[in-house]
Amino acid sequence: MALLTVIAFEAWRYFPFAFLFILARLQALPGELEEAAVVDGATPTQRFRYVIMPQLWRVVALLAVLRFVFTFTKFDDVYLLTGGGAGTEVVSVRVYNFLTARDDIGASAAQAIVLAVVLVVFLAVYLRFFAGGERDQRSL
Q: Largest CB tally within 10 Å, which of 24, 29, 98, 104?
């Protein structure tokens, strides 16, 4: 139950963040794209799937990366809600527990470095597949 509470709290807390990103991208979509789809006889489902959603992929990928990083480094909410107990111990809470409760500076530093490496690899994958495409399309 504690894990579900933390998940519900995080979803509730960061929903406006994601909503604003997606809304901003939807408002920036050129109206001609959807108008052309309507003229071609596309149904609303087809317009969403083939016209709107491909325009949102970059924003959705950015939100996924940001939420992944925020969740990995999230300390305060998890620690205040559950103290890391009941299966909710995230890496940042574990690093804190190693540092304070066990006085094991080496283990906490090692886990923090592993966390940083995982986040850098995830960010590199995002940058490789999603960040550079728009510049390539403009140069064509």
A: 98
Residues 94, 88: Cα–Cα separation, whole Å: 10
pLDDT by residue for the chain (140 residues), tens digit each?
A: 888 888 888 888 888 989 999 999 999 988 888 889 889 888 999 999 998 999 898 898 888 888 888 877 777 788 888 877 777 778 888 888 888 888 888 988 998 898 889 888 888 888 888 776 555 444 44
Separation of alpha carbons 10 and 86, rounded Å: 17
SS3 40: coil
Give the closest residue to 90 by CA, choosing from 65, 69, 63: 69
Query: Could you give the C-alpha distances from 50 to 40, 80, 132, in angstroms and in order?
Result: 12, 43, 22
The whole-model pTM stands at: 0.68
**Amino acid identity, residue 81?**
L
Q: Which of 52, 60, 57 is nearest to 21 (CA)?
A: 60
